[in-house]
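Moderator note: this is an archived Q&A kept for reference. The question asked for a predicted structure of one protein chain; the sequence and the answer are reproduced below.
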Amino acid sequence: MIDSNLREKLRKIPELVWSELLDEEEGKSIIELQTIFGREFIVDREQKSNRKEKVWYKKEIITKNLKQKLDIQENDFSKDKVGNDTFSKTIANSITDLRESGKIIDVKYGFPRYGIWRKTSPEEETAIMEFKNGNYSWPETDSTSQEIKKREFTNYILKIYERKCCICQFKDQKNLSAVTIVPLEIMKDFEPKNSLSPSNGLLLCRICENEFKKGVIEISENGEIIKTEKFHKLDDYHLEYWIEKINGILKISFPKGNTPGKKFLNLRRKLK
């Protein structure tokens, strides 16, 4: 049972977490965080320009600061089976809320997350919330919005496909790509408002992506994998294992609750 004094401290956490992210003196560069925590952090390509800026915050540092500000003692909260307590969970939930509302951006999309974020700019926050609210259009000129919306698209596709290639089930996230079924340059004339819609997305490993883009394999509106004439003419010993595997697969694995749009799959095939 948590007493009223501790409950009041928990109530203050969301506001204090946000104030930590506004405290420019507490911000660290990625290089500083690597020194403190002794590990290599993989930074998303679009975040490399921010790598040296003191704009990044890590959960361990925020937790330490909040324990001091709220005078939290080691035994104030009991831990669960995996070692988490209500205090650390409340901080984690506050960070999740900030991420969902577009207020912060992770140093790396997908999983595992490193628990490193920075505050978003107004332009970035706008682009994040546009995507979350169903505006999937591709910004023609705003490079910041392009990067953010592509990142949100990738994150969402990784999530709904459970980080597995929808064709061959390959699981290594470093070699998975969120691919638009109909390319962006075609979508701007076909249906621009849905350019980055999850219904226009697939999660593919590098090999399946390459062969899909080359027209070696196609996907019907019902998710059936079509081996084209190009597939049957493949003569590359580097692809022998992949060819054997694909020969045994009839349909892609559909994500739960968000299947690829039939109109996009049909248009893709008409473009060949």
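Archived answer notes: The first helix runs from residue 4 to 22.
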